[in-house]
TrEMBL record:
GO terms for molecular function: ABC-type oligopeptide transporter activity; ATP binding; ATP hydrolysis activity. Its main location: membrane. It is a multi-pass membrane protein. InterPro entries: AAA+_ATPase, ABC1_TM_dom, ABC1_TM_sf, ABC_transporter-like_ATP-bd, ABC_transporter-like_CS, P-loop_NTPase, Type_1_exporter. Keywords: ATP-binding, Cell membrane, Membrane, Nucleotide-binding, Transmembrane, Transmembrane helix, Transport. One of its GO terms (cellular component) is plasma membrane. This is Multidrug ABC transporter permease/ATP-binding protein. PANTHER family: ATP-BINDING CASSETTE SUB-FAMILY B MEMBER 10, MITOCHONDRIAL, ATP-DEPENDENT PERMEASE MDL1, MITOCHONDRIAL. The chain crosses the membrane at residues 20-44, 56-74, 145-169, 251-269, 281-302. It is found in: Cell membrane. Residues 337-572 form the ABC transporter domain. The keyword Cytoplasm does not apply. Residues 21-304 form the ABC transmembrane type-1 domain.
């Protein structure tokens, strides 16, 4: 149970001054809180023996007021210091998670669902923060403050009475331990169910148009209701154990009160203790309710925090698949890009997605990559982007193995427009500026002209300031592609990768974009993967992939003369275009 504190020792060591001050202040406040009951007992004894004077009463009242002010001031300090530390832990851990997410490769995201990662970044972090705040409070109160109370009751009133009243404590420890184990197991299940529900909600929102198109609203609603019911049942299972803490504590505290009052009254009649002592003792018993209850809360909070921390640590401790080189080699300029006998298979598969690829690209060339769906075009780009480990053979830039070049440097050279364009829930301007944060409107309009998006921006209600909506929902497929192209163009990268990035635009627009590309990127490398072969006819070199192998290569003219798949596909597409035009 207490292992959660050991797992968080890196945080407590860093903020040891903050937590030391908070704990000491909490203990001082607790100690001050023990004084008023003794003053009350003293006053009652003075009244009983008729020795209370107005001067003594005034001293007692002033003493109470001073204690209240001091106790409030110290309590504010420990409360602020302790719980602000918990907020810092939550912020710090969330930053670590996001930083980790940004380093992760597609392998990680295929293992963990988005909804589950969101649950770990929200609910689990709240539970961890509560451990560093409320958990520390209950730990101090259930140990130090409880022992202070017991010592005060035993040393200043009666050890016999104190030990008798504390008989229920061992019973409480056994019961709380059983509750804690059950809370840990059930809370872990509840958090996992919450993560699955999150993922289902995300998929439903993203696919809402498809759901409507196939009239699947009722089925989706039914599926979601089943998931929410599962989350509800698992949280109810947690709540059932949680709900047993308080009544159990009340029964045990009530038992302590019964013993305290019964045995205490007998001791008063025997003149072992005074009436004032009995009143003070019962006030202390009342104060003991919180420390005893804090034991249950401590177990509850620590078990929840432990379960959540295990889930978060599992994510953070996931090792990066693609690692930075131990001794990176600095490359000043991209002169060549080479694939030398490169073979590759995705993690968990035995079939090669790329097989013995040899390709030599000289700076300034445009390379066309074509082939059937699933031939390996995108995989080739992912290896150049270093998104996967396990490359067999050698991929090099300027004759330096890319595994010896830092990831930041490699990706700083590359402008990538993937098949599925990612639009952020921001304005058109901000989406394009993602490629160059300080880009002016003049630069933005220039790249929009290259991407044939100027006419479209005029039709949008607020021009460049138009919000594209989540995932670019307010833009058409062709518009999203062209915004993504503009975002890559404004970066002016050494290597531009277009992965079937013109599929949603018409042939005329595609032709204009290609013409602009040829003029703008004469001295820089461009890699174009396409199903529509008209996008690569201008390329300096074209390779045809089939089942991960290069089956044809050459210029457009050379491939047309080969009488192979390329010629057959090109002629078929030309016929299709003529039919559309006619």
């Amino acid at each position: 149970m207490f292992s959660v504190f050991k797992k968080l020792d890196w945080f407590f060591k860093h903020y040891w001054k903050r937590y030391t001050f908070a704990v000491i202040a909490l203990m001082v406040a607790s100690a001050i809180g023990l004084i008023p009951p003794r003053l009350l007992g003293f006053a009652i004894d003075q009244i009983q023996f008729d020795t209370l004077t107005s001067k003594l009463l005034m001293i007692i009242i002033v003493g109470y007021l001073v204690l209240i002010v001091v106790h409030y001031s110290i309590s504010f300090l420990w409360d602020y210091t302790l719980f602000s530390g918990a907020v810092i832990l939550e912020r710090w851990t969330r930053s670590k998670l996001v930083d980790h997410f940004l380093k992760m490769t597609p392998t990680f995201y295929s293992k963990y669902k988005t909804g589950d990662l969101m649950a770990r970044s929200t609910n689990d972090l709240k539970a961890i923060a509560q451990t560093a705040g409320f958990g520390v409070l209950t730990l101090v109160d259930s140990t130090t403050f409880m022992f202070m109370l017991i010592a005060m009751m035993g040393f200043t009133i009666s050890w016999k009475l104190t030990l008798a009243a504390l008989i229920p404590l061992p019973i409480m420890a056994i019961i709380m331990n059983k509750y804690g184990a059950a809370i840990h197991a059930r809370f872990t299940e509840a958090q996992a169910a919450f993560g699955n529900m999150n993922n289902e909600v995300l998929e439903s929102i993203r696919g809402v148009r498809v759901i409507r198109a196939f009239v699947q609203e009722k089925q989706d609603k039914t599926r979601f209701e089943k998931m929410t019911e599962d989350v509800y049942e698992k949280n109810i299972a947690v709540a059932k154990i949680d709900a047993m803490f308080e009544p159990t504590m009340k029964i045990l505290v009530g038992l302590s009160y019964t013993i305290g009052l019964g045995y205490g009254t007998m001791l008063v009649f025997q003149n072992v203790i005074s009436l004032g002592d009995l009143v003070s003792f019962n006030v202390y018993l009342g104060m003991l309710i919180w420390p005893m209850f804090a034991v249950g809360e401590l177990i509850n909070v620590l078990q929840r925090g432990n379960a959540s921390l295990d889930r978060v640590n599992e994510t953070i401790n996931y090792e990066v698949d693609v690692k930075e080189p131990e001794q990176p080699i600095e490359v000043s300029k991209v002169e060549t890009v080479k694939f030398d006998n490169v073979s590759f298979s995705y993690p968990g598969t035995k079939i090669n997605q790329l097989d013995n690829i040899n390709l030599n690209i000289i700076n300034g060339q445009t390379i066309g990559i074509v082939g059937k769906t699933g031939a390996g075009k995108t995989t080739l780009f992912k290896l150049l982007l270093r998104q996967y480990p396990g490359i067999r053979g050698k991929v090099s830039i300027s004759d330096v193995n890319i595994e010896s070049i830092t990831l930041e440097q490699i990706r700083s050279w590359i402008g990538y427009v993937p098949q599925d364009q990612v639009m952020f829930s921001k304005s058109v301007r901000e989406n394009i500026q993602f490629g160059k944060s300080d880009a002016s409107d003049e630069e933005i309009y220039r790249v929009m002209e290259l991407a044939q998006f100027v006419d479209d921006i005029k039709q949008l209600p607020k021009g460049l300031d138009t919000k594209v909506g989540e995932s670019g929902v307010t833009l058409s497929g062709g518009q999203k592609q062209r915004v993504a192209l503009a975002r890559a163009f404004i970066k002016n990268p050494e290597i531009l990768i277009l992965d079937d990035s013109l599929s949603a635009v018409d042939g005329k627009t595609e032709s204009k974009i290609i013409d602009h590309l040829r003029k703008e990127r004469q001295n820089k490398t461009t890699l174009i993967a396409a199903h529509r072969l008209s996008a690569v006819t201008h390329a300096d070199h074209i390779i045809v992939l089939e089942d991960g192998k290069i089956v044809e290569e050459g210029t457009h003219e050379e491939l047309m003369a080969n009488q192979g798949w390329y010629k057959e596909q090109y002629e078929q597409q030309q016929l299709d275009d003529e039919e559309v035009i006619s």
